[in-house]
Write the structure tokens for this entry.
Amino acid sequence: MQQQLDVLKAALQSPKKIVITTHHKPDADALGSSLAMYRYLSKKGHTVQVITPSDYPEFLNWMQGNDTVLIYNETTATAAAEWVQTAEMIFCLDFNALSRINELGEWIRQSKATKVLIDHHLQPEAFADIMISDTSSAATCSLIYECIIGMGDRSYMDTYIGECIYAGIMTDTGSFRHPSTDRKVHQIVADLYSWNVDTPKVHRLIYDTNTEERLRLLGYALTEKLVILDEYYTAYIPLSKEDLSRFESKTGDTEGLVNYALSLEKVVFAAMIVEREDGVKISFRSKADFSVNEFARKHFQGGGHKNASGGKSLLSLEDTIKQFRDLIPQYKDELLDNLRKEKFLC
Ligand code: 5GP
Ligand code: MN
């Protein structure tokens, strides 16, 4: 990593025009890493624009720099294209394949800018000139911290950057409970207090800002929609367009729902299958060593991490559910093995 950081540091010696982008439907790690990097690079004297490939949940709007973000859509496409075409450097944060950023992906592939990937997803695509990929890292935000410190720029850190970094680490570790939580995670967070990061405030801003509809959607999903396949230690939650519109669902309202399915004692594999405007989107979560990265890659054109991944399907919601259910029996032994492992770990 230090070698790549030295190359990056050299590239940042003179003021540059820089675009920062992150994955479709950014979460706290995606937006947090982008806005932390945005503030750091701006303070260093670069001209920087964050472009997101889509909108993102309102519970992230408190992040410093949020009002400068260019959200890609039909109206902003021309401005976004101009930024990408004229940028000297493009930072790609918290995603591992250009297909994850829709139209922006092809523009970036064709751009002559120096591309910098900072990410922690498994099996990254080799499209970047400078690749800071650490799949053992709990969050892209912790990599951003390591980059800033590793380039000798501790003095550029501040409360706002710290808040963004904390948000990404807190959410990607599931509030410090996923297996990715380790000594380094806590050491980084401990250091964030050097800049007076108000960690309970960040937690409240993200988790205690539910709308009534979102909370009722959760209740409905758990009472009416959750399906438990006892025999396969698997549970899933399907949600149709009608379900979402009934609860006036907004971007981010379904985030975290899949974790409730995984929290069942005898479940090692959980999925949430959601019918969206542009197709069916699936979130996968697992316990122990059952790799949902492999599962999503193999069957649903997706990927991610061992215990958290996503994918999509162009079939109808019903057919996607059927496809999912039909796949499960072949994993029965593996799922049972992992249930045993999980029990042993506890
Ligand atoms: P979520 O279920 O929260 O949307 O995503 C879980 C993890 O999988 C995140 O790290 C996310 O970036 C990744 N992920 C979600 N959907 C996809 C996908 O379609 N393709 C790939 N490669 N990764 C995904
Ligand atoms: Mn992440």
The chain has a mean pLDDT of 97. The first helix runs from residue 2 to 11. Residues 29, 94, 120, 139-140, 172 surround manganese (II) ion (ligand 2) (CB under 6 Å). Residues 159 and 275 are 39 Å apart (CA to CA).
